[in-house]
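DATA SHEET
Item: assembly model
Revision: 1
Owner: S.N.
Input lines:
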Amino acid sequence: MKLSLTLLAIATTTAAPALDILVLKDGRRIRGKHLYVADDETKIRVIIQGKSGRGEATQDIPATAIDFIDFDPLENELEIMAAPATARITDLRKLWLASQRYLPFPRSRAAAVALTYAQRLLNDPAADKSLLLPVLTRVEERAWHPEDQAAARVMRLRTWLATDRKKEAIAEAKKLAEQTQDPALLIEAHHIVATVEFEQLKALQKKHPKWEEDDEIRPQRQRLYHATIDRFLYPYLFHGSRENVATRGLKSAAEVYTFAGLKDRATECIEDIKNLYPETPIASQ
Amino acid sequence: MLGGASAAWAATGDVIKGRGTAAEEAKASTYEERLEEGRKAFLRGQFAQAKMIFETFIADYGANDQVTEVVAAVRPLLALCLVRTGDFPEAKQAVDDALVLPGLARPLREELAFARGIIAMQLSDWENAQTAFGEFYKERKHSQWRRDEALILFGTSQMRAGAHAEAAQFFASQRDQLYETNPAAAGRVAVLELQARTTAGDQAGALALIKAAFPRMAEMEQLVAFQNSVVRLGVDFFDQGNYYQAVSCLQRVWPRKRLLQHQQEMIGVLENRITALQERRTQRDALPAARASLARAKASIAALEKQASFDAAVRLRLARSYAELTRFREAALILEGMLNEMPADAIVEQAAVALVESWMQIGRWPRAIESGKAYETKFSGTGLEKGIDKVRFLVAESYERDFRLEEALAAYDALADSAKDKSFAARAAFMSGTILLGLDRNKDAIRSFKTFRATYPKHALVEDATYWEAMGHSFAKAHDESFAAAGRYLQKYSQGKYLAEATFRQAFSQHANSHYSKAITSFESFINTYPDTKHADEARLLMGDGLLAEGEIDSGLAAYKSIAPTSTRFYEDATIKTGKALWLTERYDDFHTHFTTFIEKHPSSGKIAEAVYQLGKLSLKQEDPAGAREAYWKTIRDLGNNPDARGIEDILTALPRTYKTENNPTLALTRDLDALIAQAKASHHRTLHVRALWAKGTILENRNPTLASIALLEAGSLADPKFDSPRILVDCADARLASGNPKTATNLYHEAKRWNPRTPHKDRIYLGLARASEIKADLVAATSYYKKCAQETFRPPLRGEALLTLAKLQSEKTPHLARTTLDDLLADKTIPTNHKAQALMCYAEILIAEGEEKKALAYFERIYVAYGKYHHLVATAYLKRGTLLETLGMPEKAKAVFTECITREDLTDLPEVIQAKARLQALEKSGA
């Protein structure tokens, strides 16, 4: 990013937020009419309205001095984010472009905008998926909250899956599963790997209908089969109080068992859902 | 609970300051000083001292009308001091008296009203406590935090009074409202409600509460207490056999580390809150509640820090719940997490043993072995390894169940020697014997069982060892010994569990030793005694053999006939043997009927070809060669389109012997096959069409390779790998490869294996795939397939070819591996000599490439010394050895080699010999 402060200011004037409150680490609060983020994100230029309502003052604040910013909503932000499923993708994109530079600043809502925009792109079959990855990468790298970074990482894996980059998705998910301590991320990583492995299992059995008799294929099939179920059961066994992901995993495990012809085992998983998570949407299905 | 001392004092201050009249000034200075002293003591929290001062003051001035107002102001403070010093009966009266004093300031009234409830609780007067707290709560002017406190203590009093169900109901009615206004108090209510419900036996309600409160657990100050109650309820459910409910509880328990971290954070928040409250005079009223919260949070941490095995205990119980639900995978995954993540302690050790067992329950042998190794790594030498012998035994058993018999044997042997627990040592020693039998090391097995019996004469497995010793002798074909050992078993265990087997084994030994008469009697007795055992049909077959050997043909045939068709192997053997007996006794009509019926009734039998052959033999015997041929063709026409009739391929390949009488047998057969092909094609009998084409290709392979190839390629294009014989598929793939189509050949090889993973032609498939890969210059795949072929095959020529080609592939980049491969080839006595001679040549060339020329000399020499019949190789070996000697500066020896080469009559005119002559002349000319 090589834009100067001036250029950035010109580029963003139309959608710049108004009346944001910068809360500094020393307790001072600065009410800014316009905020401009330096291209290297090391400082923020604040345009402060003169006291009598006339004239403006400019102040540069180092990013390190900022505790958080109470952002005023951007133009149309509240309407768009109130009903993201029906919002137009172009409006979401505009909102994202206007808010993306605030990603690193605590309490910024830019990541939420980005993830909503990305989800819409992912869900829309007609959408240009190539727009997704740069958005997600930016959130992963710059978002102030680790949960947003993690969510972007998971969505990147889902994007890869949706765009036939399964190998990359599974490699990355496996890496994540080994490295991360974040339960939500770990659960998603396991689920993604298991989903892909289940597909591989189905493909393997289709290719080798007599796998049980095949000394070479049988170990591969068994490894895939067990690994898939083990991973699907991960949230249920280790984060069992996260009901939605636990039941999602149990349901998927039941599908694997059904595919393997083990209906009793599949029934057990369904029984688990009924007994332990009767209130969940999956239980009602 | 009584935290508002300063506020109370403030409320009395004005009264004391505005005391009395000037007339009493001198005396007042004395009581003023005393009251000031009492005030300070009260504020410092020295309530005993304050109490003494206030009591003395009232004793001295209580009757003094001039200070009535001051005395009235002191009485509430004294009452509060009495509460603080624990003088509850006295405090009760003092508080009641103080509360009726006129003009009592609001803070004091609140303090005293609250104290009334506290006193009642202290005096175990639960009813009055509830009344006091209830009245206190009703007064909306009272501070909110204390009203919330009164609410909690109201319910607590109910619990103390034994009304747990009512208390639970009361808490439940207040909880949601409290979450809105005072989450910390709501958390405490949840803790108490859980205790109340558990004590009242309302487990369902308790579980519902846990689920409801779980999302807000992070707001609880007494989270540890709540979680402990959850664990206790989980354990109760487990003990009652309600495993799902146990799981529901236990999966909502946080790990100890997270709990400690949460409590530490809570302490930080509370300390900050207290500091802030201290700084803000107007909110000091909330200080006591905040301090009480801090104390509770600290107590929670202290309690948890004492529970070092908290996580392990919870997770082990969770895993056991799953195990009780026969969900061993789930149990194992939880236990595996414990083994990997938790520090070694007694509970984790117990979990690790259960882990190995759980994997075994679902047949995941490699994981059981892996977990056993992880156990060793974690616990060996720690003093915690209580279950090590059991784990080692389970690992050995897992090896055995995973068919890794050598590893199983090593594991059992090691345990038999090292186990501290002798019961495991004994079982391992016995199992070693059974594994040795599995490895076909029968003599070692027998020794092992004998040693076992001698070492553990009273062990329960001695019976088993005695029986299996007899079996070991039988497997080793030492039938006298087997008979004697089985006899020892029968003598010692007349009601033993192997009674039938040992009885059969004795009869079997007699039969194997050709003691037919005795054997027949024994088998007859066995069949009568054990007609439905697994050995009964084998006994009938062997008895039939014995009877025939003794010349009792009809009895023998009757014995064969008594075998059930469901015993396929014995039934088919008996069928063929019956036929042979009928032939030998010249009962040809019966013979014909016998095999015709067999073919009709069992078209899918593997013995069909044999049966048809027998029918053909009968026709030839009756000088009816056309009849013999017709027998073959009839079966082909009747069953040829049935893919399950696997014997048809054998009949087709046996056809040539029925055409021997023809002038041109091949032509005649080809003509008939072509007719069959046309007929099958016209009638869309695909299977028969493929089989006929394949038969034509196979029969013409040597006589007319071009026509053979065309037939096989056509068969390949029509073949359906799902149904057709792998033998046909592999021949067709070989034809594709030979015709320069490695890609389509590869596809067909893969399809053949895909639909027939256990085909005996797997070695040919690997060889074909290796060759195809080599043609496609995929040397990595080629190397892998050659290795698989060599490993898989039972055909020595194929193994020889695979190893030789593999070595050649390896020789360029990995000559050391190539030499190992050639060593394997040369050590295999079954491999044909032409491959061995080529292997020596290859070996010598590798050595030369590695600069080991002198060593190479010996390999060339071995070729012409030991493999003389391979002329070309022999001549090459002479030439190469001679040339190498020249290079090494040994011309005389070189001349001798060349001379020997050119003087061998069997090599005359070979190009290598001509070259040897030239070299010899050149050497002589140069005078070397």
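QC remark: Strands of chain A lie at 20-24, 29-32, 34-37, 43-49, 56-62, 66-70.
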